[in-house]
Amino acid sequence: MKKPIKKTWMIASALTIGMAVLTPLQAGAASVETKDNSSITVQLEQKITGTIKDIYDDGMNLKGKDGKNYFISFHKFSDEQIEKMKLVEGQEISVEGNTVESYSDFFTFEVFKKYFPKEMTKQDLTRLEKLFNEMKQLQKGFSKEIKLTDEEIEKKHEELEKIYEEIHKITKPYTLANWQPQSFEEYMKDYGFNGKNIIIKENDNAQLKAIYEEWIKLKKSGDEEKANKKYEEFDKILEPYLDALNAPETFEEFMDSYKKVTEFLDIPAETLAKLKTLHGDLQKALKAENDELYDKLHEEFYGLLNQFEKPQTFEEYMADFEFKVSEADSKKLKQLYEEYQALDKKGEQEKSEETWEAFYNILEPYFEANKEILISASKVTINSQDHLPQH
To answer: Does the pTM of the predicted model rise above 0.70?
Structure first.
């Protein structure tokens, strides 16, 4: 049964994101001689000390004492271990771990495996690892360097879907055996109706509770088809309450929130009236699921609204970047920035896009030099206390 989606960085499940085949890394690797004079490449761990900039559910941004930017992944750690670290922005910490080339490289089978029940047999683990590696191999084919036809892409997606189904078949019995469903009251609390003073009628509440308990029995029995039909009954009763909970924001609410992040020049009353009408039409198109009309109205709405945005100066725009550019590049960038704004104001889209591309071509080497180094953490030290993953 579906529940309200919480806004988190959803990278716990390796099945729902792009996977890449792990490749030997040159950085942080060393060649070790063996007894028969052959050599193997092993990954050396790096140690970084720095200050926490941002904290996420599964990692953090770190500004190293060496001046470099890092993203530290906590995929090897459990949620409980991460919570015990009590991370705080601005805190100085030390991290040991391996460098990886891309975010998808954090998703090894060891990471995937930690979400499985302890009761899983070695035979099933072996089957899952084989499927996992097949999945990574297929995902490798989606890299930017490999050009695929629509037919080839569709075929790969079909193959991936088959792998997902096989994985689901293996994990489903364990998931159901270990599933401890919430009580109906706890489940309903997660929707947040009380926070919006939305009261569910007594009769509807009784029906919802009965359906919820039937749904649990069907899920536990493994009868997905009947469980899904039961969910549809639940959803039908709940729909009007969800509509009230997720009522679209008014034009005034939209403008209030938008003005908190964007400075505006004075908008004439007749323009505000037109914007309000367009905002209402947008809501209607969204409800009617008329994508073509929605896109047209969206472009018209923001095209009109953007005319009254107070443009950032070049200096204000550049202040958002952590790096500093050379004096010569700064002069070129300022000229291009002001040229872009003038073209954009005139509505000369093609020329403005070319100017903006030239602007970012100058900035590209700075982005490259300051991009984050990705580290898969295997040890975190805070206030002389070491935190290690549980194996």
So the answer is: no
